[in-house]
Amino acid sequence: MAILLMLFAILAGMALPTQFSVNAQLRTVVGSPIIASAISFMVGAMALIIVSLFGKGIYIKKEWFEAPWWMWTGGLLGASYVLATTILMPRIGAAATVGYILAGQVVASILIDHFGLIGAHTHTLSFPRLLGALLVIGGIILVQKF
Q1: For the chain, how long is the longest CA-to-CA vector?
Q2: What local confidence, expressed as pLDDT, does residue 130 receive?
C-alpha cells in the first residue's frame, strides 16, 4: 500500500508542471492569468462534482456550517497557487517555477510539522530534517544555474 501511495504522490507531482504549462498556454489564448486560472478551477470543480455525483452523491450536512472559517480557505490558497504558476511559468520556466514552489512547500511543511499547525501531528525539527530541506534548496539552485 505504501508503494501505491508513493506512486500516486509522484504522479500528482508530475501533473503539476504539466498543469503549469497548460495554464500558461491557456493564458496566452484568453489574455489573462486570472481568467486562465478561473477556467482551470471551473473545469476542475466540474470534474469533481461529476465524480461526486456518480459516487456517493453530495449531501450538505449541518457540520459544514459549524466548521471554523479558516477551513474554507483551501480554495483561496489553491487559486493563488494556480494564479502564481500561471504568471511565473512563462517568465521563469518550468524548472524554476517548480523549484521555488518546492522550496516554499518544504519550508512550510517543516513549520507545520514542527508546531503541529492546522491539525498536523507534531514532528519536531531536527538536524537531519533541516539538512534535508537545505539539500532540496541546494538542488533547486543547481537546477536553476545549469
Answers
A1: 54
A2: 94
Exposure pattern of 98-113 as b/e (b: 16+ CB <10 Å)?
bbbbbbeebeeebebb
Q: How far apart are CA 102 and CA 105, in angstroms?
A: 5
pLDDT class for 145, splitting at 50, 70, 90?
confident
Residue 14 burial by Cβ neighbours in a 10 Å radius (0-12, 13-18, 19+) = exposed
| Residues 103/136, Cβ–Cβ less than 8 Å | yes
> Which residue type does 136 have?
V
Contact of 95 with 88, CB cutoff 8 Å: no
Distance CA 89, CA 26 (A): 12
* Helices and strands (DSSP H and E) totals, the chain: 6, 0
Q: What is the pLDDT of residues 68-111, one digit of tens each?
A: 999 999 999 999 999 999 999 999 989 889 989 999 999 999 99
Report how far Cα 124 is from the mean position of its chain's Cα atoms.
Answer: 23
